[in-house]
Amino acid sequence: MKKDKLIGGVFGAILLLSGCAGSGQTQMTPEKFKDMYSILLKLDELKKKEIITEAEFQIQKKKLLGDEKAP
Which of 20, 36, 57, 66 is the most buried (most CB within 10 A)? Predict the structure, then answer.
């Protein structure tokens, strides 16, 4: 159950922050940068613990960073 909450929290935060990256509509503030950085660290931790795959990590990273090619 704890893993599900962690994964849900990380992915939920990605959805909230994804609108601020790469869109050009919202300015990147230090707070948003710190949030993005902490999410990337959590995603990396999940990958290292084999909770998510490398492919899932790359997809979520692209979404977070605003890569237009992300599914």
Answer: 36
